[in-house]
Amino acid sequence: MMCPKCEARGYVVTTEPKDDCTLRYYRCHECGNRWKTIERIVKAGKTDEQKG
Q1: pLDDT higher for 52 or 30?
Q2: Residue 48: its pLDDT value, please?
Q3: pTM of the predicted model, to two decimals?
Q4: How many CB atoms lie within 10 A of CB 31?
Q5: Would the CA dihedral through 14, 1, 23, 25 be positive or negative?
Q6: Judging by beta carbons within 10 Å of its beta carbon (0-12, 13-18, 19+), is residue 24 exposed, middle or buried?
Q7: What are the strands, taking DSSP E only, across the chain?
Q8: Per-residue pLDDT for 45 more than 80?
Q9: Smallest Cα–Cα separation from 33: which of 1, 18, 15, 16?
Q10: Closest by alpha carbon to 35, among 9, 3, 20?
Q11: Are the C-beta atoms of 5 and 33 separated by less than 8 Å?
């Protein structure tokens, strides 16, 4: 994940699973900026056209 402040590479500090999503906390290697992302699993099915 790229830092939204300086665009350097960040790393995962901690991960917290929630009921319907996962929270990931990141920190930048270069500037020390911290941010979090919310990740949700989305199931996608094939349409009739893709089944083929």
Answers
A1: 30
A2: 66
A3: 0.67
A4: 13
A5: positive
A6: middle
A7: 10-17, 22-28, 34-39
A8: no
A9: 1
A10: 3
A11: yes
C-beta separation of 10 from 28 below 8 A: yes
Amino acid letter, 41: I
**Beta-bridge partner residues of 38:** 23
* 32 Rama class: left (phi>0) / alpha (psi -120 to 50) / beta: left
Per-residue model confidence as pLDDT tens digits over 9-35: 999 999 999 888 899 999 999 999 999
Q: What is the pLDDT of residue 51?
A: 62
Task: Return d(Cα 13, Cα 4) in angstroms, integer.
Answer: 16
Q: Which residue is associated with the tokens 């083929």?
A: 52
Q: Which domains does the chain carry? A: 1-41 (2.20.25)
